[in-house]
Amino acid sequence: MGQLDGRVALITGGARGQGAVEAKLFISEGARVVIADVRHDEGRAVAAELGDAVTYLPLDVTKSTEWNAAIAAVMDKHGRLDVLVNNAGLYRPKLIEESTEEDFLAMFSVNQFGVYLGMKAALPAMRQNVPGKSGSSIINISSVAGFRGAPGSCAYAGTKFAVRGMTKVAALEFAPWSIRVNSVHPGIIDTDMISIMGDERHDAIVAATPLQRAGTSDDVAKLVLFLASDASSFITGSEFVVDGGLNTGTAVGPRRID
Ligand SMILES: NC(=O)c1ccc[n+]([C@@H]2O[C@H](COP(=O)([O-])OP(=O)(O)OC[C@H]3O[C@@H](n4cnc5c(N)ncnc54)[C@H](O)[C@@H]3O)[C@@H](O)[C@H]2O)c1
Questions:
Q1: What does 171-190 look like in DSSP terms, one character per residue?
Q2: pLDDT tens across 145-204, in order?
Q3: Is 248 part of a structural domain of the chain?
Q4: Residue 250 placed within a domain
Q5: Contacts of 193-201 spanning 24+ positions with Cβ under 8 A
Q6: Is 56 a catalytic residue?
Q7: What is the total count of domains within the chain?
Q8: CB contact at 8 A, 186 and 215
């Protein structure tokens, strides 16, 4: 028996990276998955590769009309929505003085406003599930950048801090329908998103990660599966860090005392 048998999940930003890997893990646990993105060719290719349990839907998460159409399409096709993973994200690191208003608003629109629109659009569909029985779950992908500052991440960190707050508010508002809402905070994860940071910065972050490696999309997907499934049925409004220990503090001095 799969952990997500009979469940229907919508994963934004599912055309590549962590979202695509989450889709693959979810279907291996019995779910039907809709991946939604603005990368239409990549999204359709991922859906074709993963087979009949996955469909691709064009969705720009910054547009409420597109959200409403996407939820309607999921309900038309599957008749229910159990899991929403607000995973779509944009990362454009720049120092404050070098960044533009356009950069700031682009990250705000996808990483923060898109999460708000997603939770709002999914609520009426998830409210139709039987409370306490069918385990609706919303998983908002934040970051370790939602806990700490780093040079060049003013807009990005701002949005990821905001996701923590919005998650807690939604957890309280949606609890009467047993809809759980939690946030996930990955550390450095090797996907296309971080190619923009360059090798030197990447390697410095890995060096500051106590487990001494970058994470994989699979590392994150296993946590997202836990939060999507009944294994986490008494967990809501919480923050889950998957970062090899990066957020624990800065590693100084010897790593072992023998
Ligand atoms: N990779 C990391 O190191 C890391 C660390 C912490 C948090 N995260 C977060 O994890 C999530 C997934 O990132 P990833 O590493 O898989 O990166 P990625 O760039 O591979 O995937 C992000 C996806 O979001 C999609 N997207 C962007 N704007 C969109 C929009 N307006 N509408 C719909 N889809 C849109 C992109 O097309 C892309 O497919 C993001 O929220 C990111 O901020 C990533």
A1: HHHHGGGT-EEEEEEE-SB-
A2: 999 999 999 999 999 999 999 999 999 999 999 999 999 999 999 999 999 999 999 999
A3: no
A4: no
A5: 193/17, 193/89, 193/91, 194/91, 196/91, 196/92, 196/93, 197/93
A6: no
A7: 1
A8: yes
Question: Each residue of 214-246: pLDDT tens digit?
Answer: 999 999 999 999 999 999 999 999 999 999 999
Domain, as residue range, for 200: 8-242
CATH number at residue 158: 3.40.50.720
CA of 137 to the centre of ligand 1 (A): 20
The pLDDT-based confidence of 130 (bands split at 50, 70, 90) is confident
Give strand pairing partners of 34.
10, 55
Q: Is 139 in the pocket of ligand 1 (CB under 6 A)?
A: no
Residue 252: inside a domain, yes or no?
no
Distance of CA 138 to the CA centre of its chain: 9
Q: What percentage of the chain carries pLDDT values higher than 90?
A: 93
Residue nearest to atom 30 of ligand 1 (CA): 60
Indicate whether 55 belongs to any domain. Answer: yes
Amino acid identity for residue 254 in this structure = P
The closest residue, in CA terms, to atom 21 on ligand 1 is 17
